[in-house]
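To: structure desk
From: M.T.
Subject: fold request, one chain
Message: Could you run this one when you get a chance? Sequence is below, nothing fancy, just the single chain.
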Amino acid sequence: MIWAQTSRRGALFPFVGEGIFTQDGAAWKHSRELLRRPFLKTHYQNLKGFDKPLDELAAAISSADGMVDLQPLFFRFTLATTTTLIFGQPIGSKDGQEDIFAENFDIASMISALRSRLVDFYWAYKPSRYTLACKNVKDYADGFVDRALGESDKNAGKDNDGRYAFVEDLYHELQDPILVRDQLVNVLLAGRDTTACLLSWTFFLLVRHPKTLRRLREEIQSVMGNEKDLTKSLIQRMPYLKCVLNETLRLYPPIPINVRFAKRATWLPRGGGLDGSSPLLVRRGLGVGFPVYYMHRRRDLYGEDAMEYRPERWEGPELAEIGWGYLPFHGGHRLCLGSKRSLSLNTV
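Reply: Done. Structure tokens follow.
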């Protein structure tokens, strides 16, 4: 492996601990394989787990007076669905502490992101509120892990509803509740904010493009008919919905820029020379940033209207060979494990 995450480990470790975001090499591969199995199981689950958070989201919107700020509601919604997936129950169902947990999680996430931008000088910024927020997030996660493992022990040998499958699968391999906790916080960091942002940008764009909204609504009404429950088979019959999400992810990718560091001296095929078309030497330890946000707006990849919101570009053969020119969830062996679940959640 030529590329590594390097300084990200030190910047994020107080928050997420030992997990997929702070590892490289063999440890990273092991964590990815551990998480791949429970994610694969959730891909084949039905969408019933979304019912309660969806009802609460709809109730919050319908009860609002006048203009509604959707983004805070989407963040609460994705917090509930993601914690239900990994902890076995939404965070809000534990002593009504959803707002406190969300506040601590936001503080820890924001300061971790700032520390990451400091690269090798991440250690210079570690305010007391960051230390406290990280501790509070871990304490909450510990409580859920302990509860899940306690329920598993109590129901050993009996059929269960699979509520704690994520925790159980990880503990079966790791045999350490602290390591299980760390992996779950890694998943929560990956799944909560990115999905809420996709929802926010989708609605932001739809209300500004009434023709797109009208066509999407007509497709949903046509497919759903008199059906009350949304299923994955019904979603597969909504191709325009997929186009809408693809186009939103193109213009507003959840990770707009990413960085990797060279583990050994290597080179890039372009970027050197006076005209930028010659190979470029990358020395060991040097970071290379790739701004997905700008790549997704390149006219040579997406046409002269690359800056415009046009979901129809995803119909037909126009972008059939886009390949590495479209990276909302990264790609290759680092493709986001939760990408399919994220799209399912946004579709619902």
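Reply (cont.): The chain has a mean pLDDT of 86. Let me know if you need anything else for the meeting.
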